[in-house]
Amino acid sequence: MPTYRPGPVSLIIAAFVALFLLMPLLAVIPVSLTPSRMLAMPSGELSLRHYRALIEDPRWLQSILLSIRIGIVSSAFSTVLALCFSLGVWMFQPRFTAALVGFVLLPMVVPPVVSAITLYFLLTSISGFSSFFGYDTWLGVAMAHAVMTVPFATVLILVSLSQLDRRIDLAARGLGATVWERATRVIMPNIKFGIITAALLSFVLSWEEIGVTLFITSVNAITLPRLMWMGLRDNIDPAIAALSVILIIITVLVLAVRSFVARQRGGH
Amino acid sequence: MRSYLSDRMGAALLMAPLLLFLVVAYAWPFLGVVKWSFTLPTPGLGQYEALLTDDLVQSVFIRTLRIAAVVTVVSVAAAYAITVVWVRGTPAQRLIAEFCILVPFWISVLTRAFGWVALLSNRGLINTWLQAIGFTSEPLALVRNEFGVIVGMTHFLIPFAVFPLASAMRSLDDRVLLAARGLGSSRMRTFWTVFVPMTRSGIIGAAMIVFVFSLGFFVTPAILGGGRSVMIAELIYLRIFQSPDWGLGAAISVVLVLFVGALMALLFRYVRPKQLI
């Protein structure tokens, strides 16, 4: 069957858009190789000093480790909560499901800055009682990130549940399985890719989170994006260019692997 | 038959932790913010009155709406162009388009904003080249102004506009387009009178998403605007952390939520949520 393909004019305009989309990602490469201490284009010689700075300056390493720790804790927390909630929705189909799911999705649709001021209120209130859990603590940041990522985890798990055949659960139920057995031995093995994806996405979202983090940290809980922000606002530090190049390479590799795996499994 | 009661219990037990967590960690503190807007610094409607009278707040609101409108038009148009190729191109074209859409989408907002700083700043790529070829002797002011903010936000939001457009274009029946061509309509005419009108729901969805996102955008305007082109979100941040005026910051947040809520309600009257993904 013939298909309707884009013509030359569409292709030229799309090429410009593609160039626009890639331009800032390519621009950081030459900047990361500048020998200068300030943000500038290298003129002649190249240097890897900014890559070395990433390893040698303990601040970068500390913030990377902190971001990983916060990412793991908040992702585990939000995935478990999202999983229980989604199982409840799918197995029992309670009344008001739409309203309850809508409530859970709020942090995803409310403008991030409003969520940020909300979580700032929460954490400063908690700080009144506790010094290790609240404003500017890593546990506080992990909890705030869990609030922000839990809607995404819920959506992913609900979507993979919606593709599951209800009859296998009915069969298990008919054979006398308890709710616990149905959930852990029948349903969860069938949606494990959805659960893993939810956990990974929660981690990535927490790892890059900056809008909320800016409101709830000051000097102690400096995550990697927070440190980048500080380097971007004042004197622009070319070490950020080196870091950006590394992050871009990781992203491209992960996407390449993912699309390769998808092709192998025959999906789209 | 299992009792109705135990089903209710099971559902409640499984759904309760997340609902409880969000009530305590999200709904309750939001009410706290609402309370701030009515009580700080003095109880009453003073903060909301200030929203209507304060020149600074007014100019920030107007600038935000203006930037959001420009960004919406430019990003939806740009997204449309690349989505056409992503959905209807040859396999090779599709792969390239997908790469150009998904790689920026997954890269953090900070890295992307930084990339634009590297391109647009006085000692950045574009100014270095322009001066090298003798186009200009003084660097052009491309960043730390509204232009830089619009460029950066457009770049960030194009992938978000792509998804609803792609879903609209995928559901479009090829035979209609081929019929138009077969009846003698030119490529251009088929595109403008058949293809575009049939993807209307995608265009509305994409425009709404981009517009709503732009209203609450914080990071990109703060970095590329350099404090000179402040938008609503940055104003909230400044009211909380620089000139401690929590009441005003809270009042602006409440207004922003109401405004975005109204826009979403409007959106869902025209587009079903499923068409947005």
UniProtKB/TrEMBL annotation, chain A:
Keywords from the named record: Cell inner membrane, Cell membrane, Membrane, Transmembrane, Transmembrane helix, Transport
Residue span(s) of domain ABC transmembrane type-1: 64-258
Localization, UniProt: Cell inner membrane; Cell membrane
Pfam families per UniProt: BPD_transp_1
GO biological process entries: transmembrane transport
Any one of the GO CC terms: plasma membrane
Membrane topology: Multi-pass membrane protein
Superkingdom: Bacteria
Presence of keyword Cell membrane: yes
Residue spans crossing the bilayer: 64-92, 99-123, 138-159, 193-219, 239-261
Family membership: Belongs to the binding-protein-dependent transport system permease family.
The name this protein goes by in its record: Putative spermidine/putrescine transport system permease protein
Source organism of the structure: Rhizobium loti (Mesorhizobium loti)
Lineage of source species: Bacteria, Pseudomonadati, Pseudomonadota, Alphaproteobacteria, Hyphomicrobiales
UniProtKB/TrEMBL annotation, chain B:
Domain ABC transmembrane type-1: from-to ranges: 61-267
Domain of life from the UniProt record: Bacteria
Keywords for this protein: Cell membrane, Membrane, Transmembrane, Transmembrane helix, Transport
SUPFAM superfamilies xref list: MetI-like (SSF161098)
Segments passing through the bilayer: 65-87, 99-119, 147-166, 203-226, 246-268
Membrane topology (UniProt): Multi-pass membrane protein
Main location group: membrane
Localisation: Cell membrane
InterPro entries: MetI-like, MetI-like_sf
Gene Ontology cellular-component annotations: plasma membrane
PROSITE patterns cross-referenced by the UniProt entry: ABC_TM1
BP GO terms, sorted: transmembrane transport
Cross-referenced Gene3D superfamilies: MetI-like
Pfam families: BPD_transp_1 (PF00528)
Family classification: Belongs to the binding-protein-dependent transport system permease family. CysTW subfamily.
Descriptive protein name: Putative spermidine/putrescine transport system permease protein
Source species: Rhizobium loti
